[in-house]
Amino acid sequence: MAGMTRSELVSMAYSPAINVRRFLGDLIEQERTLAARPDRSKDDEDTLREVRAAIAEIQRRGLARSG
């Protein structure tokens, strides 16, 4: 998921082949892992920002599939 934008992550979450709850859980786990890293690189910071934005958007939209 590194290098993906918020919109790419959100689009992926709502694709038919993806379980939204599981995907959201994976994003949250990635956010925790990156946030706990004391030696984050610029790329890690960018990824963390995009992951947090994607989590927030998926939570706003809800776990139901929507277009």
Write a short abstract of this structure.
With 67 residues, this protein is mainly alpha-helical. Helix content is 67%, strand content 0%.
Properties at a glance:
67% helix, mainly alpha, 67 residues, single chain
Low-confidence stretches: none
The mean pLDDT is 88
The counted number of beta strands is: 0
Tell me about the largest β-sheet. none
Q: Percent of residues in beta strands?
A: under 5%
Cα-based radius of gyration, to the nearest Å:
12 Å
What oligomeric state is this? single chain
Percent range for helical residues? 55-70%
Which shape, going by the Cα principal axes? Answer: elongated
Quote the distance from N terminus to C terminus. Answer: 22 Å
What series of H and E elements makes up the topology?
HHH
Helix/strand/pairing class, anyone? mainly alpha
Helix count equals 3
Write the layout of secondary structure elements.
Blueprint: H1 6-13, H2 20-36, H3 42-61
Helix pairs in contact: 1-3, 2-3
Account of the 3D structure:
This protein is mainly alpha-helical and 67 residues long. Helices cover 67% and strands 0% of the residues. The protein contains three helices and no strands. The protein has helices spanning 6-13, 20-36, 42-61. Helix 1 (6-13) packs across helix 3 (42-61) and helix 2 (20-36) runs antiparallel to helix 3. It is elongated and about 35 Å long. The mean pLDDT is 88.
